[in-house]
Amino acid sequence: MVSFQIAVERGGAGRRRRPSHQTRAGGLLRAPRQVAHRTVANGKRIVRGQSKRKDRILAIDLGGTHVKVLLYGESDERRARSGPRMTPQEMVRAVRVLARGWRYQCVSLGYPGVVFRGKIFVEPRNLGKGWVGFDFEGAFGCPVRVINDAAMQAIGDYEGGRLLFLGLGTGLGAALIFDRVLEPMELSHLPYKKGHTYEEYLGNAGLEKLGRKKWEHAVFDVTERLRAALEVDCVVLGGGNALKLKKLPPGTRLGDNANAFTGAFRLWLEPGWVQPTPASRARSRSDRK
């Protein structure tokens, strides 16, 4: 049996105070432009579409060090340690423990790796094995939408126009949104400098090797290169290490990590961000009967 260290975060996932220096794979997924009405989730305004699915959404933000969960309408996230030995079976068991007392009808899972049309295509670098082909819907007993974790937070941070999201954490996550068209990006393993990749400079390994000042210089350099190349209106810097920046590069703003949950909720409240699998469609039809 696997034991997990579980801690309940207090104070509200959507109430996190931002630092004073903040300024305001494969397949294009288009979000709807016409909406019915608006609601609010964790302090963030959410556009709600025509879906009749009840708002019993469990959001899972999976990373290389922690797995975090939040139920739509709740304010306190719950978390457990993940790590390089966590398999999908162990993640499901941990989430079930964390979500005790919560009733949910559907799940959004932010996965730290390549996801195409709701399916995991590549095993994660910072977790255990067995993720490709795993039946999450069977494991949770309800519809599950799987999306790249950086893309999930980008959706939560999106306010219009052209946005590039960079997640500075254990590794480097990236996602691009052009006028509500979402494109997860695998920038992390592209070559950057001296035979090293973007992730080796901007991830945890780069921070530890370079030290904070040189790491921050690399963040500025990469951000400016990508902002110019992709012609975006804004770059959002998220992830736990983004808070270690003493100042922000030009044309950027700091993302709130709690917006990963906002993005997870928007996957169900705003139909169109993600193309559900055939199994999800079948179960959705049966739920409405």
Write the layout of secondary structure elements.
Blueprint: E1 6-8, E2 29-30, E3 37-41, E4 44-48, E5 57-62, E6 66-71, E7 78-81, H1 88-98, E8 106-111, E9 115-116, E10 119-120, H2 136-140, E11 144-148, H3 149-157, E12 162-168, E13 172-178, E14 181-185, E15 191-193, E16 196-197, H4 198-202, H5 204-210, H6 212-230, E17 234-238, E18 252-254, H7 259-269, H8 278-288
Parallel strand pairs: 5-8, 8-11, 12-17, 17-18
Antiparallel strand pairs: 1-7, 2-14, 3-4, 5-6, 6-7, 9-10, 12-13, 13-14, 15-16
Task: Write structural notes for this entry.
With 289 residues, the chain is an alpha+beta fold. It is built from 8 helices and 18 strands. The protein has helices at residues 88-98, 136-140, 149-157, 198-202, 204-210, 212-230, 259-269, 278-288; strands at residues 6-8, 29-30, 37-41, 44-48, 57-62, 66-71, 78-81, 106-111, 115-116, 119-120, 144-148, 162-168, 172-178, 181-185, 191-193, 196-197, 234-238, 252-254. The chain is globular, with a radius of gyration of 18 Å. The protein starts with 5 loop residues before the first strand and ends with a helix. Residues 9-52 and 274-289 have low confidence and may be disordered.
Keywords:
disordered C terminus; alpha+beta; globular; six-stranded mixed β-sheet
